[in-house]
Specification:
The chain has helices at 2-21, 53-58, 91-107, 116-131, 136-139, 154-172, and strands spanning 32-33, 41-43, 46-51, 67-72, 79-82, 142-145. By secondary structure, it is α+β, with helices and mostly antiparallel strands. The chain has one domain. It is elongated.
Length: 173
């Protein structure tokens, strides 16, 4: 009976996660592009700063609502990393920031190629794993590199979530 209850809760939990991961493509951006030398864009809660590590280190007087994004699109596996992405859990805010990343790529083209849908799935997965205290040093920031475009499919997420749930249940025993 206990085994059935565990499986039932795992089933409910996985379906809840998959429901959250579904993404509505109809997004109406609320951002505006401003001075590219200092701030790439503003969004409904603050500013979005995008640049290399030296640029981000020099920033001062940023608010805790500002978003810092590390641009490493010039690497062999081009990537963009949202620093402390685990703090951003609101779906609409995530969508605003992802739209800003897409606009950034349009203005400054590179070999970086990620779809809105894949970035959204990866961000949700990172946040979920972070809040389960799973590899916090790797999940506190979300990095959108080209090689991970299809890494966050429903099947991959199901497998990862099952592993996490098993670890949690084993700790409870």
């Amino acid at each position: 009976m206990l085994r059935f209850i565990k499986k039932f809760f795992i089933f409910i939990f996985l379906n809840l996660i998959l429901l959250i991961i579904r993404y509505d493509e109809r997004i109406f951006p609320k951002y505006k592009i401003i001075d590219e030398d200092k701030i790439f864009a503003s969004y409904s809660l603050g500013n979005v700063y995008i640049g290399n590590i030296d640029f981000l280190k020099k920033l001062s007087n940023t608010s805790d609502k500002d978003v810092l994004i590390l641009d490493k699109r010039g690497e062999s596996d081009p990537t963009i990393k949202i620093i402390s992405s685990y703090k951003i859990v609101d779906n609409n805010i995530q969508n605003e920031i992802l739209n800003i990343l897409i606009e950034y790529e349009k203005r400054y083209p590179s070999k970086w190629e990620r779809t809105m849908r894949s970035m959204k799935k990866e961000w949700i997965a990172h946040n979920l794993l972070y809040y389960f205290d799973y590899q916090i040093n790797r999940t506190e920031d979300v990095d959108f590199n080209n090689n991970d475009e299809d890494a966050y499919s429903k099947e991959a997420l199901k497998d990862t979530i099952k592993k996490i749930i098993k670890k949690i249940l084993n700790k409870l025993k």
